[in-house]
Amino acid sequence: MPNVPPPAPQEIPPRPPLPASSTARRRPASVPLLVLGGYIVALAAIAFWPTPVDAGVAPLLEALSRRLPALSYHRVEFAANVALFVPFGVLLPMMLRSRDLVLPIAIVATVTIECGQAAFLTERFPSVLDIIANTAGACVGMLGLELWRMVRRR
To answer: How many CB atoms lie within 10 A of CB 15?
Structure first.
């Protein structure tokens, strides 16, 4: 058999460039995850504190509402519950890369909180208004994030 030289090594063709969308600068997923984790810990501490977290400021709120009747205790509490879930509406879509599940998750989370308060905390009282306020807060956060993204694109 004649001596046949081995075939010459073939060069591997270069890899085609990545699409522009995948080379865009993205925030590492760990940053929103860490912020969301810290927020959830703080939310759980507030939600499951054995006594009402506003007990220390209740006299101040009552005095304020006597001077400014529009700032009643119940309105301030409702607004605080809305504000409490705004970060939920901002951070969760950043983690999920979608907003489709944000409100269902917010509703499940707030119903879980209210049920936990009813079952385990004698000095805390669950409320349907808290569920409405928390869900509204998640909605406000989600809409705020969308507005910020729209402004940023322009």
So the answer is: 6
Q: Comparing C-alpha atoms, which of 74, 95, 85, 83 is closest to residue 27? A: 95
- Which residue, 100, 79, 84, 90, is CA-closest to 36? 90
| Residue matched to tokens 């301030």 | 76
H helices of the chain, in order, are 20-23, 30-47, 58-67, 73-96, 102-120, 128-153
Say how far apart CA 84 and CA 92 lie, in whole Å. Answer: 14
Tell me 15's DSSP state.
P
Residue 139, C-beta contacts closer than 8 angstroms, at least 6 positions apart: 89, 103, 106
pTM of the model: 0.75
pLDDT tens-place string over residues 86-130: 999 999 998 887 789 999 999 999 999 999 999 999 988 899 999
Distance CA 147, CA 64 (A): 34
At which residue do the structure tokens 């699409």 appear? 19
What are the tens digits of pLDDT across the range 60-96? Answer: 888 888 898 888 888 989 999 999 999 999 999 988 8
Contacts of 103 (CB under 8 A, 6+ apart): 135, 138, 139, 142
